[in-house]
């Protein structure tokens, strides 16, 4: 049975030793995370009750959001007869079906996540790469629809604009990192 809980994401920390507060979806032996946009120290969070200590208004907003997620989760479970997939649930809760998840959407989500956890330099480089690449090729399509032809067109367009080999490799490495994250999160299969 799928569950959703409010936790501190201890896999990620910023330079002040603060952690992002996230909703963890657990289904089919896999976890997915929904960002709340809140970063707090470990000592400010009660693990047992799933609440921020001393912040009634934020806790109330988080509880309302959790109730909305639980209602959607129950609908998802009923529609899928107990066949639960953590990534599909995440997409469903966010209002996106897996086939509607575009490269651009996912890339922006990763930029927001990096900013949330305080990795602003990486977020900035992802944003610059996204801006440049999206001007040359269409990223408003699912990962499965992005082909080798698109990569060749991108590389050619960047060369024509006078970009150096090293500059192009930075953008392509960023694109590869986004693809690898999508693969790790089961948004796209490894074969793509």
Describe the structure.
The chain is of the alpha+beta class and 192 residues long. It has two domains: 3-95, no CATH class; 103-184, DNA polymerase, domain 1. 50% of the residues lie in helices and 17% in strands. The protein is built from six helices and five strands; from the N terminus they run E-E-E-E-E-H-H-H-H-H-H. The strands form two sheets. It has a three-stranded antiparallel β-sheet. A hairpin with a 4-residue loop joins strand 4 (45-46) and strand 5. The two termini are 30 Å apart. 21% of the residues are buried. The model has no long low-confidence stretch (mean pLDDT 86).
Concise overview:
With 192 residues, the protein is α+β, with helices and mostly antiparallel strands.
List the helices and strands and how they pair.
Elements: E1 3-8, E2 18-27, E3 30-41, E4 45-46, E5 51-52, H1 56-79, H2 86-93, H3 103-116, H4 120-136, H5 148-160, H6 165-184
Antiparallel strand pairs: 1-2, 2-3, 4-5
Look at the structure and give the mean pLDDT: 86
Strand residue percentage = 15-25%
Tell me the quaternary state.
single chain
**Total of helices:** 6
Helix percent reads 40-55%
How many individual β-strands?
5
The main sheet orders its strands as 1-2-3
Q: Helix/strand-derived class?
A: alpha+beta
What is the global morphology? Answer: globular
End-to-end separation: 30 Å
Order of helices and strands: EEEEEHHHHHH
Q: Spans with pLDDT under 50 lasting ≥5 residues? A: none
**Largest sheet report:** 3 strands, antiparallel
Rg from C-alpha positions? 19 Å
- State the domain count: 2
């Amino acid at each position: 049975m799928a569950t959703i809980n409010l936790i501190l994401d201890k896999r990620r920390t910023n330079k002040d030793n603060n952690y992002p507060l996230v909703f963890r979806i657990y289904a089919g032996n896999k976890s997915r995370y929904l960002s709340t946009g809140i970063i707090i120290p470990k000592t400010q969070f009660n693990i047992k009750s799933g609440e921020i200590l001393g912040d009634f208004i934020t806790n109330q907003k988080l509880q309302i959001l959790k109730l909305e997620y639980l209602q959607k989760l129950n609908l998802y479970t009923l529609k899928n007869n107990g066949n639960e997939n953590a990534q599909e649930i995440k997409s469903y809760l966010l209002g996106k079906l897996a086939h509607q998840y575009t490269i651009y959407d996912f890339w922006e989500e990763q930029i927001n996540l990096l900013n949330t956890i305080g990795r602003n330099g990486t977020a900035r480089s992802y944003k610059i790469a996204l801006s440049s690449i999206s001007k040359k090729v269409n990223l408003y399509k699912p990962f499965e629809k992005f082909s080798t032809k698109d990569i060749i067109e991108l590389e050619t367009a960047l060369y024509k604009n006078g970009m150096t080999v090293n500059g192009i490799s930075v953008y392509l490495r960023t694109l590869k990192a986004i693809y690898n994250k999508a693969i790790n999160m089961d948004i796209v299969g490894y074969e793509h």
